[in-house]
Amino acid sequence: MSSFLQQKFGLAGKVALVTGSSQGLGKAMAIALARAGADVIINGRDAAKLAPVVAEIAALNLGVRAHAIAADLGDRAAVQRLIDAAVAWQGQLDILVNNAGIIKRTSAVDHTDADWD
Questions:
Q1: Which residues neighbour 56 within 8 Å (Cβ) at sequence distance 6 or greater?
Q2: What is the 3-state secondary structure (H, E, C) of the chain?
Q3: Which positions of the chain have pLDDT values less than 70?
């Protein structure tokens, strides 16, 4: 990013949490946020899949930090632990990218309130 763009749109000093970031779009968003200067928290259910993403960001030598926190977002208590751990890591949380998803093979109109919850 050019210095002008970095000044106008850079994320230096910000902390971003990207859910579902062990692969695919979530991983790409986490790397883009790191390139923009944000420290990034990588999240997914499988800790073993998160470590390579943290290593990839570190290898870019961007001067930012990356941290992995495994949590299953289908568990409300785990969500609270994720947020608590994220804030404890850097003392703040500025950006949240809700990328984690589920697959439910039914029409959206047929989902129950519990499904959406």
A1: 31
A2: CCHHHHHHHCCCCCEEEECCCCCHHHHHHHHHHHHCCCEEEEEECCHHHHHHHHHHHHHCCCCCCEEEEECCCCCHHHHHHHHHHHHHHHCCCCEEECCCCCCCCCCHHHCCHHHHC
A3: 1-2, 5-6, 103-104, 116-117
| 17 bridge partner residues | 41, 96
Tokens of residue 75, six digits? 């568990």
Which fold would CATH assign to domain 8-102?
A: Rossmann fold (3.40.50)
Tokens 């809700």 found at:
98
22, 44 Cβ separation under 8 angstroms? yes
Q: Enumerate the domain spans of the chain.
A: 8-102
**Which residue type sits at 100?**
A
**CA-to-CA distance for 96 and 45, rounded, in angstroms?**
17
